[in-house]
Amino acid sequence: MTYRVNTSGIDRLCSSLFGKTLIFTNRDDWSDEDIVLGYRGQYRIEHAFRTMKDPHFVTWQPMFHWTDQKIRVHAFYCVLALTLTSLLQRKLHQAGLEISIHEALEQLTAIRELLVIHGRGKKKPAATAVLSDMDESQRALFETLRLQRYLPPDAVTP
User: Fold this and answer.
1) 154-157 CB contacts, 8 Å cutoff, 24+ apart
2) How many Å apart are CA 54 and CA 69, to the nearest integer?
3) Residue 67 and residue 140 share a domain
4) 82 and 121 both lie in a single domain
5) Backbone phi, then psi, for 120, in 5-degree steps?
6) Is there a single domain that holds both residue 13 and residue 72?
7) Alpha-carbon span 136 to 133, nearest angstrom
């Protein structure tokens, strides 16, 4: 077995990845570790703003409002939705479910509650809530978020 070192590749890595970063801050009361963690955590905020521009998710646009009050309400709804989805993702992560928020919302949307109405002769028809069949990931989401508590007491679950 033979090997060789790709020196040009190592030089490229050293110049692009292994450099030094200067971080300036006005947080004199923070420890060095807190400053570095804060700097490295900023991608979460940047990702949140990127998410707000996603037309298929919590989106800022298109905004069909013209008055300042309606624009403020729209902004509030967008930030509220982003906050709720972030809390949902955090809860799923804490429960050990490593799933993207897009996938989680798609899986949750696929869970359906059906209302089956059946007659009993001349008596008033009765209604029964029935959940649609769920796959393994949907079942995990359903149980993690304890969605059973929102069903009627006589609901039929698969």
Assistant:
1) 154/128, 154/129, 155/113, 155/128, 155/129, 155/130, 155/131, 156/128, 156/129, 156/130, 156/131, 157/131
2) 23
3) no
4) no
5) -130, 70
6) yes
7) 10
pLDDT digits (tens, 9 = 90+) for 58-79: 666 666 778 888 888 888 888 8
82 and 139 fall within a common domain: no
Q: How far apart are CA 141 and CA 155, in angstroms?
A: 18
Residue that the structure tokens 């007491």 belong to: 153
* 41 and 101 co-located in one domain: yes
Higher pLDDT, 135 or 63: 135
Give dist(CA 85, CA 108) in Å, integer: 12
Sorting pLDDT into bands at 50, 70 and 90, what band is 128?
confident
The reported pTM is: 0.62
Question: Could you tell me which residue, 126 or 52, shows the higher pLDDT?
Answer: 126
Residue 31 domain flag: yes
Q: Are residues 92 and 18 in the same domain?
A: yes
Q: Is residue 19 part of a domain?
A: yes
Angstrom distances, CA of residue 121 to CA of 13, 81, 115, 116, 155: 78, 47, 19, 16, 22
In a domain, 58, yes or no: yes
Residue 74 in domain: yes
